[in-house]
Hints:
Shape: globular
Order of helices and strands: EEEHHEEEEEEEEHHEEEEE
Oligomer: single chain
Amino acid sequence: xxxLIIQVLIIGCSTESKFxxxxxxxxxxxxxxxxxxxxVNFVTSKPAYYYIAAEKVREGVDPMKIEEQFKTLSLDYAxxxxxxxxxxxxxxxxxxxxEFSSHSLQYGEVTHFFTxxxxxxxxxxxxxxxxxxxxxxxxxxxxxxxxxxxxxxxKITFKYRINDTWDYVYPLDETGKINPNIPWxxxxxxxxxxxxxxxxxxPGYYFIDRMNILRExxxxxxxxxxxxxxxxxxxxxxxxxxxxxxxxxxxxxxSFDGPIILEGEYKNYAIYxxxxxxxxxxxxxxxxxxxxxx
Length: 294
């Protein structure tokens, strides 16, 4: 997932009937470029479907000189991913599956986070209008080159709170306020599973390896701002953890922004350890970080 090149936004409703191919312009504005992500705003002159992506710069290639080929190749890549996604759902017997335009294209003004970018790397951020009836390019290529930072410069810490089966994560900036614009990932694991099934040198080794794996996984749940989860075995689909009386757990969270920073006041990950009991209430801050130890 660390090399995720193209990320699409799933939208639940179809607006194809509103779209007529015509003279529609697309504008993009790069809002923020960090080590592992960039934030970009896209807006059209009138309602239209369009495709967006962030792709590593290819040496010797000028997208504007091969514009039609570049746009067609991008849509082919997106359609290939869509077919694989649709195949999995059909195989599972899902009766209702979104069409390509609803699944893989954008509609209306969108502020999008491209995540899992490589640090210190050149990328193209781009988009173009698409005809949803033919799934073909219908507008000019709008593109901008960016360069990701060598390391994250975002100063962030994680506060973690448990209230019975619920837990809450608060990504905080240096003023102690919730930062809603930093992508982050997290995971909770039972110490019995960690010791008996995985048996790492320390929990820190496990979680660092795990965070790197998450960067390679297109299905990773990426969060922004405060997040609450019910650890009752069902949750919201992002985790099926079920807290059990007297079991010890480790919860780790890390900003999804380039390499993990292991030291410093604003290192971008934390690991908290607790033994759960019914009705427990506890708050963890950076002073409670286990630093990856058992």
